[in-house]
Amino acid sequence: MTKIRSISLAQLQSKFKTRDFILHDGRDLRRFSVSGRSQAAVAAVAGVTLCFSIYGVGQAAAGAVVASGALGTPLSPEAKVVQLQTKLQSLHEDVEAIKRAAAAQAQRVEQRQKLIAAVVEGKTADARLALNAPVIDSETAARAADVIAPLRKVEAHQVAMAVRARQLTEHRYAIAVGEVRRLGIAPERFSPRMPAMGGPYEPVTTNQSAEDANADAQFRSLFMTWKKLDSLEQGVIAIPSGQPVANINFTSFYGVRSDPFRGTPAMHPGVDIPGSIGTPIYATADGVVSRAERAGGYGNMVEIDHGRGIATRYGHLSKILIGPNTRVKRGQLIALMGSTGRSTGSHLHYEVRIDGKAVNPIPFLQTNAYLASVQQRAQQSRVAVGGPAADQVQ
Q1: Among the listed residues 304, 299, 364, the one whose alpha carbon sits nearest the alpha carbon of residue 333
Q2: Which domains does the chain have, with CATH numbers?
Q3: Tens digits of per-residue pLDDT, 364-380?
Q4: Which residue of 252, 308, 321, 383 has the fewest C-beta atoms within 10 A of its own C-beta?
C-alpha cells in the first residue's frame, strides 16, 4: 500500500517564493504581489481537490464493480487495478498541465514587466521579452483558470499599460523626428536595419485564446514602436551638437564668399571661428578619427567619422592630439587651434559633412537642450564594448 506523507501549510509555503510585480507607465505606479502563502494555499486547494478526485474515482470504481456484479460480469482484481490506475494517470496529467500553465503565465508576466520597465526607463529593450512569451493553449488555460486567475489580473493591467507606453513612445518619436528634420537630415537614415532572413512560409496554429492573442499583439506593437524610437535616438549620437571651442563667434560663414587670397567668389564649405594659437578644440559628437594629418589648404586637419554618413572636419590646427582610428567622445579634446595651411591668421575651420558633402554647420551649432538630452540618454543606455585597435594587435 502506498504511504501518503502529510505536509503542513507552513511546510508547503516554504516551497514557494513571493512574486512581486511593479507596473509603471510613466505616470501611474502599481504594485502587485502574489505571496508564497497564496501560492501555497492554491497548491493546498489543488491537493485537496486531487484527493477528493481520487476518492471520487475510487467510489466510481466501486460503483462500477457493484454494477458489473449486478449484471453478472464482475471485474477481476487485476481489471479493477488497471481501471483505477487509468483514472489516476488522467488526474496526474491534469495536475501537470495546470502546473505548466501556471509557470508559463508567471513567466509571461515577468517578461512583460521587464519590457514595460525598459521602455519607461529609456533602456534598450530585449526583443525576446515581447516576441518569445510562452504560449498557453486555450484548453489548458481553461483547465488552470482558478490557479492562474491572480496572474491574469496582473496581465490585464500590463496590457493597459503597454497601450499607454506605446502612445507615449510614439509621441517621443514624433518630437525626435521633428528635431532631426530641422537639421536637414532624413529620419530614415536612422531606421533600424532589418537582418537578413527568409525561408518558406509555414503557418503555425497556436490555439491561443482571443485574450492572449490580443495581449501578444499589444506587446509586439509596443516593442516595435520602442525599437523605432531607440534606433533614432541611438542614431542621434552621430549628429554633431557640441561646440568645437568654448567661445564661438565667426569671421566667415558657410557658402559663397570673396576668397581672402584672390578676392574672387569661391565656395566656403564650413565656418571660421577665430581664437588665439593653442585654443583647445573639442570633438562635437562621438565617432572614430578617420584622418589626422596635413591636408593641403586645411593645414593640419582632423576628420571624425560619426557614423550614419555624418562627419566633421577641423582645420588649420597648430597641434593634433589624437591619431587615426582613435575612438573619441563628444566634448573630448582633440587638437589646438592654429594657422597652418591656407590661412590668414589663427582660427578654426569647422565643417559638417553628410555622405561626403559639406552642409551648413550653423544649425548643428545651435541645437537645443532637447537634442542634447536625447544624446545623453542614448549614451547612457549603450552597452559598453571595447578591444584593441587593429594597429595594436601584435
Answers
A1: 304
A2: 9-191+209-236 (no CATH), 255-368 (2.70.70.10)
A3: 988 656 666 766 666 65
A4: 383
Do residues 311 and 304 lie in contact, with contact meaning Cβ atoms separated by under 8 Å?
yes
Give which of 305, 285, 307 is closest to 193, Cα–Cα: 307
Start-to-end CA span in the chain (Å) = 73
Predicted model pTM: 0.61
Closest C-alpha to 180, from 357, 371, 382, 379: 371
Cα–Cα distance, 105 to 311 (Å, whole number): 49
List the alpha helices (DSSP H) in the chain.
9-13, 36-70, 77-121, 127-131, 138-143, 145-182, 210-236, 362-365, 369-381
Which of 324, 241, 331, 326 is CA-nearest to residue 282?
331
Half-sphere exposure of 334 (CA within 13 A, CB side): 37
Q: Which H or E run contains 305? A: strand 300-307
Set of cell numbers at residue 301: 586637419
* Cβ contact 273:316 at 8 Å: no
**pLDDT tens for residues 201-259?**
777 666 666 777 788 888 888 888 888 888 888 888 888 988 999 999 999 999 999 98
Task: Report the pLDDT averaged over residues 316-320.
Answer: 97
Which has more confidence, 259 or 123?
259
DSSP letter string, 53-98: HHHHHHHHHHHHHHHHHHTT-PPPHHHHHHHHHHHHHHHHHHHHHH
pLDDT tens, residue by residue, 282-308: 999 999 999 999 999 999 999 999 998
Give the span between the Cα atoms of 46 and 12, in whole angstroms.
12
| Burial (0-12, 13-18, 19+ Cβ within 10 Å), 39 | buried
Count of residues making up the chain: 394
34: helix, strand or coil = strand
| Mean predicted lDDT score pLDDT of the chain | 77
What cell was used for 8?
Answer: 503542513
